[in-house]
């Protein structure tokens, strides 16, 4: 059976570090409000560059079909997301007189995946999607706020080499981690 819905694209997953502890230590209504505000902020900053496949707890599964991904474009979106996330954390902490100890990590991966519909929902399928989720559970990051760009993304993206800097840690078995300056 041939699937004509299979394409190459980018999977990006922003996820909150510190989410589990936050949930256990925050009242239900307050926690839900804060998480909703933070997720909404990330979606707004995305400015419809990526489509949303799923929102699960503290993570958004963004995707974009793209034969020529741009490291520069994705880095710019991630920087805007990190800045907006940090501003929203500060704003909410002050407004609610509550310390919010969460940070943002993002996984950026590239490969082939397909999409199918169930009712009104679009679901992604493929090894690329599973690999992106596996990259979330890593022990490479030395700081809580970062973006991990997989080898697959870096090898397929335009302009990565010209944007290499000292804030990046290269990992032979995964890709490159760029730490967000907080």
Walk me through this protein's architecture.
This protein is of the alpha+beta class and 182 residues long. It is built from 5 helices and 8 strands, in the order βααββαββαβαββ. The chain has helices at 19-25, 28-46, 71-96, 127-136, 151-156; strands at 7-17, 51-56, 59-65, 103-118, 121-125, 146-150, 168-171, 175-179. Strands 1, 2, 3, 4, 5, 6, 7 and 8 form an 8-stranded mixed beta sheet that branches. α2 packs antiparallel against α3 (71-96). The radius of gyration is 17 Å and the shape is globular. The chain starts with 6 loop residues before the first strand and ends with a strand. The model has no long low-confidence stretch (mean pLDDT 86).
Concise summary:
The protein is built from five helices and eight strands; from the N terminus they run βααββαββαβαββ.
Total DSSP E strands: 8
Would you identify the regions where 5 or more consecutive residues have pLDDT less than 50? none
Number of distinct helices: 5
Could you say which overall geometry the principal axes of the C-alpha atoms support? globular
Order of helices and strands: EHHEEHEEHEHEE
Largest sheet: 8 strands, mixed
Mean of pLDDT: 86
The helix-and-strand class reads: alpha+beta
As a percent range, the share of strand residues is 25-35%
How far apart are the first and last residues' alpha carbons, in Å? Answer: 49 Å
Radius of gyration: 17 Å
Helix content: 25-40%
């Amino acid at each position: 059976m041939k699937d004509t819905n299979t394409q190459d694209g980018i999977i990006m997953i922003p996820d909150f570090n510190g989410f589990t502890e936050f949930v256990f230590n925050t009242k239900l209504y307050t926690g839900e409000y804060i998480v909703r505000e933070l997720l909404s902020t990330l979606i707004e900053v995305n400015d419809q560059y990526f489509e949303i496949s799923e929102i699960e707890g503290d993570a958004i599964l963004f995707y974009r079909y793209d034969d020529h991904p741009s490291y520069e474009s994705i880095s710019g979106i991630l920087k805007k997301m990190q800045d907006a996330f940090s501003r929203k954390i500060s704003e909410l902490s002050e407004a609610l007189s509550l310390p919010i100890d969460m940070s943002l990590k993002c996984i950026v991966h590239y490969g082939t995946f397909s999409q199918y519909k169930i009712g009104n929902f679009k679901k992604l399928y493929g090894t690329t999607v599973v690999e992106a989720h596996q990259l979330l559970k890593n022990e490479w990051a030395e700081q809580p706020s970062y973006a991990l760009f997989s080898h697959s993304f870096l090898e397929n993206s335009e302009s990565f080499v010209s944007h290499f800097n000292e804030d990046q840690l290269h990992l032979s078995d995964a890709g490159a981690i760029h730490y967000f300056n907080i």
